[in-house]
Amino acid sequence: MQWYWIVVIAAGAAIAAYLTLCIVIAMRVLKTAVTPVAHTLDEARVTQAKNENMDFADYDSEWNKQNFEVNGVHGKIRGEVVFNGNAPYSKVAVICHGHTWNRINSIKYAREFYRLGYSLVLYDHAYFGQSEGDFTTLGLYEKQDLNSVLTYVRGVFGKDAIVGLHGESMGAATVLLELGVRDDVDFVVADCPFSDTMKYYRELCTDLTHLPSFPIVDVANAVSKRKYGYDFNRVKPIDAVAGSAVPVCFIHGAADTFIRPHHSEDMYKVSASPLSELHLVEGAGHACSFKTDNAGYRKIVENFVVKVENNLTQLKKVS
Fold first, then answer.
1. Domain 39-196+235-318 is found in CATH 3.40.50.10320
2. Domain regions of the chain by residue span
3. Cross-strand partners of 251
4. Which ranges carry the Peptidase S9 prolyl oligopeptidase catalytic domain (predicted)?
5. Rounded Cα distance, 15 and 13, in Å
6. Is pLDDT above 60 for 81?
7. Considering the entire predicted model, what is its pTM?
């Protein structure tokens, strides 16, 4: 056998081995994204009590809670409304949890809004907690489910109530995507969101595998589109932000290596609202800004919400 045939065969074998490796990695990436480990409500309580030193006394015995469910894209979406004070209720905050978790993880954020006089809506995204669904799509179908939740919220609290959204990670991407769905949201607090799913997956793939993201992410996307109807290219929160005048408070851990801070920075730059803010929390990793600087986080949220409320009051006076 001539030497060049040996080279060709060896090169072909190497390419085949590399492509096989890429396919294996792509399938693992997709599985982790759309069918991850989903924690139960009880598991979330244990984790929050241990890692966040959370006490659930107010949630368990003081908050006036009412369960609800709405029809989502792939089944029932379940959660609870927390009524603050006595009717009429003039403002409500809807809190969206992150990947693998459920509404129990939203309680720590919800408390600040409750303190500011807001009623609360906490719910489980499809596939997580007590909601139905066989997979998650990190915002694609979740924004439609949130739309159903918000329609329910408007039915309960009325068209004149102030409605704010708060989301963490996947939940943050979801609440930002919602800005491209409806125009009756008054403000958003987005904690460590990604701006563009394809860009995010490419960054994450390279960081975790030290391999080029092509063709790994592209194979994962092709399978995802065929199996789940989930096209990574269709989930771009930055486009929704750019097309909306709703004020957004971006909060991101400066030390976040899972979703890099530039995602929030990029979206802040295109936000059309002069009331939008960007806060990078020093020393905070992914979804850890609240834990890293609890007092600072709560103050950021309070100042932003009060600013938005004052602006809404002025707009009503003018009209």
1. no
2. 1-34+205-233, 39-196+235-318
3. 191, 279
4. 157-301
5. 5
6. yes
7. 0.95
Q: Is 43 exposed, middle or buried (0-12, 13-18, 19+ CB in 10 A)?
A: middle
Give the number of residues written for the chain.
319
> Considering only CA atoms, which of 242, 97, 103, 118 is closest in space to residue 174?
97
Q: Which of 36, 37, 35, 26 is nearest to 201 (CA)?
A: 26
Average predicted confidence (pLDDT) for the chain: 95
Structure tokens at 106: 């939203």
Tokens encoding 53: 């030193």
Distance CA 193, CA 282 (A): 17
Do the Cβ atoms of 286 and 253 come closer than 8 Å? yes
Write down the residue that tokens 């693998």 correspond to.
Answer: 100
Kind of pairing between the strands at 64-72 and 187-191: unpaired
pLDDT, tens digit, 9 for 90 and up, residues 189-241:
999 999 999 999 999 999 999 999 999 999 999 999 999 999 999 999 999 99
Q: 179: which 2 tokens? A: 């800005």
| 10 pLDDT above the threshold of 70 | no
Confidence (pLDDT) at 80? 99
CA distances from 305 to 115, 165, 187, 239 (A): 12, 11, 8, 23
